[in-house]
């Protein structure tokens, strides 16, 4: 159900960061910061890019950008991966006809990137292919190119979905909203 994480083998934040430092880092980020790195115009272009992509394959792509983790996640040392999997469920990315939904999740406070793919696609895509998508997105984000990086990630996931789930003869089906979720 999930693509490989970019965190420690146990899925927890690196042991060098203390609970308090992590808490402070997350409290310094809020939704306004997410809108600063991805203003409304960029969000609209990304939503249009997702919609355009979904005409070329039978899958579903969702983007979720979160400034910081909720306090309850921080208190119990939850990882970005755990939050991404939770959002995968809450956004119903798992609820597609062919189990081929993909969530691209960014956690700005930790510079974390997670890709969660449903079992229909994840069975067909190698861990190395997911790592390639994550590494490309990471390079763009480190250069401050958030919109461009997410666009490239959508294109990369589009290629994987088109390879394994070509569009149906009935035309594209939009099972999930295309708007970027900003938390």
Task: Describe what this molecule looks like in 3D.
The protein has 183 residues and is α/β, with parallel strands linked by helices. The chain has a single domain, classed as Diaminopimelate Epimerase, Chain A, domain 1, CATH 3.10.310.50. The chain is built from eight helices and four strands, in the order αααβααββαααβ. It has helices spanning 19-27, 31-37, 40-54, 71-75, 80-90, 119-122, 127-142, 146-164, and strands at residues 60-66, 101-107, 112-117, 181-182. Strands 3-2-1-4 form a four-stranded mixed sheet, sandwiched between helices. Strand 2 and strand 3 form a beta hairpin. Helix 3 runs parallel beside helix 8 and helix 7 (127-142) packs antiparallel against helix 8. Residues 4-10 have low confidence and may be disordered. This is Putative membrane protein. It comes from Roseateles depolymerans.
Quick recap of the structure?
By secondary structure, the protein is α/β, with parallel strands linked by helices. It is 47% helix and 12% strand. The chain has one domain (19-182): Diaminopimelate Epimerase, Chain A, domain 1 (Roll).
